[in-house]
Amino acid sequence: MGRWKRFLLWGLAGILVLLLWSAVDLRAWPQPTGASASHGPAPTTSDTLAHSAPAATTTDVDVVVYGTQTSGIAAVREITRADPELRVAIISSGDYLESPLAQGLSVEDARNVDEVAGGFYGEWRQAVIARYRALGVNPFTGSGRFVYEPKVASSCLWTLLEGSTAGQAVFYEGKLLAASDSDDARYVDLRLTSGSSIRVRTRYFIDASVEADLSRMLGASYRVGRSEDVYNDREGPTPAFPSQGNGFVTAPQRFSVLLTLRVYAGGDAPRHAPAADPQPGLPDATAVQLSQRAVEDFSGSWTMNIATLPGDCRELNQAWNDYPDQPTAFEWIFQPDKRAELTALAVRRSLDLVSYLQEHGYAEVGVDTIPTYPYIREGPRVVGLTTYTMPHIVGGARDEVVAVGCYTLFDRHDDFPPNQLDKTTWVQVPMRALMVAGHPSLLVSTAVSASYRAYSSPVRAELTRANLGGAAGVITVLAARLGTEPSQVPYDLVRKLLQERGYQIP
After folding, report:
1. Predicted confidence band of residue 289 (pLDDT cuts 50, 70, 90)
2. Which phi and psi angles does 8 have, rounded to 5°?
3. Distance between the two ends of the chain, CA-based, in angstroms?
4. d(Cα 387, Cα 454) in Å, to the nearest integer?
5. Which residue in 200, 265, 428, 464 is deepest, having the highest Cβ count within 10 Å?
């Protein structure tokens, strides 16, 4: 019996509560013939990664890792490998990994990989390569770029996450209700998808979410969009809604639903009916169409010619597939109760675009995998003990480096130029950019302290995010050993442990 089926056996009551809370269930959508869901294996109920009992009201751990983004998985991996005594709570919004590696980002967004990959990301990368080679499949394009199907990427992520967590980690699925990081009360309160609530008491926090949900709830300050102004959800000010009046300056860059397509060389692909409404109660679908130029160019596009994955699949990652309404990215961040609805709307729009392509000359192109979580490229940037900026990147600054990456100098899905400066660039993120100002027990591993220009560099690439998560995990382990706060851990110890784990720290 599959993991998802075992999860369903938790009971009808829990399922009904989940549907009411989340508003949508993308797994219930009709699939084309041969299509597979992309949510991957649900969290196991074995001893290696135990779910909390629905009746539990309070539990104690050493570390809360909020978010199953790439950096969150890496943090858990490093904590559990380095110290088998530390107890970790992993919190996700659903029974899936939020990491883009599992949600359709299927072309490696990194350059000079041999100089930047190591630790967790290196393990995952080698696991995917080994999986394909065992099947006699080459997971590289003709130009040597690493590519993979979401289902394989997700399976390898789960294997690494579960493989080092025996008796240490508990996986919670639910909604963040409250949080405190005061000296005498450190906890997060969750409403689980089973319907019950639980308080998870902890010593340390790692916020791995793109949205910085936990950090903002704890009162951390942040920047958002193209603004370098500082905001705070508790103390104010809070950012204005993006509009023409403020030049949309507070809008994060657009998010996407990264469908995995399949090219059926032998004939027509299964069709999606564009008028289908898989989730009643949502606003009426608006007919979508592509420009004649976009249709004509699709045969020679990134998706069809570069993002060529094993199994005749393709990564749909065109600019026209970004959700077009710029303020919607702001709503995603600051109105979390709407995320399920926004996901459903964005998925439906992407499916309608594929239907349009099918009806206008691309009958062989179908949908292979539908993600359960969008690709959220950017959220708030939490204010740290230092802020990483573009002058630091261009100048090659090295200040207590804990994470490296290599990709383009600037890559931002936005209405405002520049959108990309395609110059190979290295980043060397400083340790204090992960440490949150005024919150000594809290680390951020995705929404790190950076200017918007710096964040739009290789800082936001998944390899760099994995390295950031590994660093957050190592810092937390050392804090526990020393009996101190993460913000007080000496850099030399962090660098040494990261290098022992294979991270390429200069």
Report:
1. confident
2. -60, -25
3. 47
4. 9
5. 464
**Which residue shows structure tokens 């062989």?**
364
Residue 306: exposed, middle, or buried by beta-carbon count in 10 A (0-12, 13-18, 19+)?
middle
- C-alpha to C-alpha distances, 328 to 85, 373, 427, 448, nearest whole angstrom: 42, 15, 29, 22
433 to 58, 291, 384, 402, 498: CA distances (angstroms): 32, 42, 5, 10, 17
d(CA 314, CA 68): 24
Contact 322, 413 (CB under 8 A): yes
> What was the pLDDT predicted at 165?
57
Strands (E), 356-446: 365-370, 381-382, 401-411, 420-430, 435-436, 439-444
Summarize the confidence of residues 306-311 as an average pLDDT: 96
Instruction: Tell me how far apart the alpha carbons of residues 164 and 79 are, in angstroms, rounded to a whole number.
Output: 9
Helices (H) and strands (E) in the chain, counts: 14, 20
Question: CA dist 228 to 40, 208, 302, 455, 503, Å?
Answer: 37, 21, 32, 12, 31
Q: Kindly state the tokens that stand for 354.
A: 């594929």
**Torsion of Cα atoms, 388 then 391 then 393 then 394, to 10°:** 180
pLDDT score of 318: 95
Reduce the DSSP state of residue 177 to 3 states and report it: strand
Q: Chain-wide mean pLDDT for the chain?
A: 87
- The answer to whether the beta carbons of residues 425 and 458 sit under 8 Å apart is yes
Model's pTM, two decimal places?
A: 0.88
Q: What share of the chain is helix, strand, coil (3-state, %, to 5)?
A: 35, 20, 45
Query: Residues 258, 371: contact at Cβ < 8 Å?
Result: yes
- pLDDT, one tens digit per residue, over 252-281 is 999 999 999 999 987 789 886 554 444 544
Closest alpha carbon to 242 in 324, 325, 319, 320: 325
Question: What's the DSSP call for residue 285?
Answer: P
**H or E stretch covering 73:** helix 70-82
